[in-house]
Design brief:
Elements: E1 7-11, E2 25-30, E3 42-54, E4 59-63, E5 67-73, E6 83-92, H1 101-110, H2 113-116, E7 118-130, E8 135-146, E9 149-161, E10 167-176, E11 186-187, E12 192-207
Parallel strand pairs: 2-5
Antiparallel strand pairs: 1-9, 2-3, 3-4, 3-12, 5-6, 6-7, 7-8, 8-9, 9-10, 10-12, 11-12
Length: about 210
């Protein structure tokens, strides 16, 4: 099935979440439970894009190698996982690239790459809800850390299991830099000013 899932980061009442987005180069393993009889190790790859605006032109940064770890449990004879026991991802700010070294340098400085340079999400609780056919939804509550600032967030994913057993998830969300105490960077002595809002796009494919 060519279903494309959607993944969104829903914000706590006190803040929006900046995810630099997300998205994952994962180690994907299955944990045992009372009803699990099948263990399917796998690996994942993800492409995360951060898109922004400025008073002169739009811009984007991309990371194709985000470290991630997830533990899914499968019931006997089922292709769709029934639970998600753990989910974490972490990647350094320096792995985001725009193709323009000057812009990258400004972005790294704004996100405190030297002192708080890793973007990290750790789930504290997750649930899976089956969808139509080989689709399922994931809701994970946890903490997101950017530029040394940690905020509670809810990560929601819609995914589909392909005929070969792989899982595809995609998503997008709109976020604000200032929620993580990030001052929108400026360039060319202030002639170019970036906007506060960001859009995070990503696609994750988990191979069986």
């Amino acid at each position: 099935m060519n279903y494309v899932g959607r993944l969104r980061l829903l914000h706590s009442p006190v803040s929006h979440a900046f995810i630099g987005a997300a998205v994952f180069l994962c180690a994907f393993t299955v944990i045992p439970s009372a009803v699990v009889t099948r263990f399917v190790p796998g690996a994942a790859s993800a492409d995360i894009k951060v898109l922004g605006t400025s008073n002169l032109h739009n811009w984007s940064m991309e990371d194709k190698a985000v470290a991630c770890s997830a533990k899914f449990a499968y019931a006997a004879g089922k292709a769709v996982p029934e639970s998600l026991a753990a989910l974490t991802f972490s990647f350094p700010v320096h792995s985001l690239k725009s193709g323009e070294s000057g812009m990258d340098s400004k972005a790294y400085g704004a996100m405190k790459a030297k002192t708080g340079g890793d973007i990290v999400f750790t789930a504290s609780a997750s649930t899976i809800t089956p969808g139509a056919a080989d689709q399922f939804n994931v809701k994970s509550s946890g903490n997101l850390t950017i530029a040394g600032v940690t905020k509670p967030v809810i990560l929601m994913a819609a995914c589909s299991v392909k005929a070969n057993g792989s899982i595809t998830c995609t998503g997008t969300d709109k976020l604000l830099m200032t929620d993580y105490h990030i001052k929108p960077p400026t360039y060319m002595l202030g002639a170019l000013k970036t906007g506060n809002a960001l859009t995070i796009d990503f696609t994750m494919v988990v191979q069986k």
